Amino acid sequence: TNPNGLRLGIIRTWDSQWCVNDKEIPALIKEDFLIRQLINNFSKRNSISQIEIQRLKEKTKNRITITIHTAKPGIIIGKDGETRNKIQAPLKKLTQKDINLNILEVKNPDKTAVLVAQNMAEQLENRMKFRRVQKMAIQK
């Protein structure tokens, strides 16, 4: 069993939210995967913890709302939204739809497992002692 499957609906929500016909599901799953892959490849060191994709309502079918939860929103937004536009342009080209990109700050990055793991991996890549990295992660 997948632990995320057990948590859905209780303490966790879906990362993608949309309602479509059965025939459209495989294409949208692939599109969601490509969107997440593009965002993660664009910003490897930007501490992204979660990417939510919403396609809601039939009348706004050509609009996708993407919410990025990050510990460092200033890096993703960039100066005058410059970096944000660099992310948004390839997404629009990939999906052929209007993209609404929201960037939210994670309040406690030390309590988010993904961000703690990214931080530990970065420290280990910088050749820090593994015992020290472990102790620092536990203390936070």
UniProtKB/TrEMBL annotation:
Residues 35-107 form the KH type-2 domain. The keyword Zinc does not apply. PROSITE patterns: KH_TYPE_2. Gene3D superfamilies: 3.30.300.20. One of its GO terms (molecular function) is rRNA binding. Keywords: Ribonucleoprotein, Ribosomal protein, RNA-binding, rRNA-binding. It comes from the Bacteria. The keyword Ribosomal protein applies. One of its GO terms (biological process) is translation. Pfam families: KH_2. Binds the lower part of the 30S subunit head. Binds mRNA in the 70S ribosome, positioning it for translation. Belongs to the universal ribosomal protein uS3 family. This is Small ribosomal subunit protein uS3. It comes from Phytoplasma australiense. The gene is S3.
